[in-house]
């Protein structure tokens, strides 16, 4: 095994430019201060990410994804992760709402794209372009590419999720550099990394159910799987609109 993170294991292959990623059921929140297990999460996140990576590739967003190998495994290109989390926000929610003292659910116009330093020990602090460049985390050209790719991802996924009865409230992206220094989308796109609210009821169908002890966590992940992977009609998993 090459590496084990909070949500995935990474394995080398016979090709030094390809890795196998295995998705786990382990769940963490608040920089791993809260830990638990969400049964079936790895299967859901692997399948959902695979579908979305393929969709984005069709819309000219380069990714590290090669193919899904099994229920829990993907074959991906080897990349050197750029130590920035790229956050795209269509509505105020989570840490953003708390930071600026605004109600969750408020529309953001224009949408907000922000960087956070990928460092658990420091709490993944937000930073601006100058700081990212001064710290050697990315070049100005790379930051421009990250912004353009993040915008393209949002433009592609927002209507895609809406067609499946889901609102893409915000999401986190990670990018990496390939062996020839091409910047590509990496990591995953799943209920772990996206805030997804049911369009009809406002129910949260993402990791906030785990973060905030809302219950029905496994059911929420399975509902996203049904809509994205199986193309099933929306089904309610809770009883009321949650804004806690």
CATH class of the largest domain: Alpha Beta
Q: Determine the CATH topology of the largest domain.
A: D-amino Acid Aminotransferase, Chain A, domain 1
In CATH, the homologous superfamily of the largest domain goes by the name: ATP-grasp fold, B domain
Mean pLDDT over the residues: 95
**What percentage of residues falls in helices of 4 or more residues?**
25-40%
Secondary-structure element sequence?
A: EEEEEHEEEEHEEHHEEEHH
Major sheet summary line: 7 strands, antiparallel
Can you tell me the residue ranges where pLDDT is under 50 for at least 5 consecutive residues?
239-244
Over the alpha carbons, how many angstroms does the gyration radius reach?
Answer: 17 Å
What gross morphology would you assign? globular
Q: Structural class of the secondary elements?
A: alpha+beta
| First and last CA, distance | 39 Å
Query: What is the beta-strand fraction?
Result: 25-35%
- The overall strand count is 14
Instruction: Please state the second-level CATH architecture of the largest domain.
Output: 2-Layer Sandwich
| Count of runs of 4 or more consecutive helical residues | 6
Number of domains: 2
Concise synopsis of the structure shown:
By secondary structure, this protein is of the alpha+beta class. It has helices at residues 41-58, 94-100, 129-134, 140-162, 208-211, 217-228, and strands at residues 3-4, 8-12, 18-23, 26-29, 34-37, 65-68, 73-77, 80-81, 84-91, 107-117, 126-127, 166-177, 183-186, 194-198. The chain has two domains: 3-77, Phosphorylase Kinase, domain 1, CATH 3.30.200; 80-215, D-amino Acid Aminotransferase, Chain A, domain 1.
């Amino acid at each position: 095994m090459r590496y084990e993170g909070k949500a995935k294991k990474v394995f080398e292959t016979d090709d030094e430019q390809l890795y196998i990623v295995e998705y786990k059921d382990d769940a963490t929140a608040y920089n791993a201060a809260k830990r638990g297990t969400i049964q079936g999460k790895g299967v859901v996140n692997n399948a959902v990410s695979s579908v979305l990576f393929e969709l984005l590739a069709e819309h000219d967003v380069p990714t590290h994804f090669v193919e899904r190998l099994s229920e829990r495994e993907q074959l991906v290109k080897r990349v050197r992760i750029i130590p920035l989390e790229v956050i795209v926000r269509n509505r105020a929610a989570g840490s953003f709402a708390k930071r600026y003292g605004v109600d969750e659910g408020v529309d953001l116009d224009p949408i907000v794209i922000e960087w956070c330093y990928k460092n658990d020990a420091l709490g993944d602090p937000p930073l601006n372009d100058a700081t990212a460049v001064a710290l050697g985390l990315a070049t100005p050209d790379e930051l421009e590419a990250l912004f353009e790719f993040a915008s393209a991802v949002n433009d592609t996924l927002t209507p895609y999720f809406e067609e499946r009865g889901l609102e893409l409230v915000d999401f986190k992206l990670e990018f990496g550099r390939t062996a020839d220094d091409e910047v590509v989308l990496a990591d995953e796109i799943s209920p772990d990394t996206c805030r997804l609210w049911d369009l009809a009821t406002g129910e949260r169908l993402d990791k906030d159910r785990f973060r905030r002890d809302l219950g029905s966590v496994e059911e929420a992940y399975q509902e996203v799987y049904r809509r994205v992977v199986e193309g099933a009609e929306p089904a309610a998993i809770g009883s009321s609109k949650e804004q806690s």
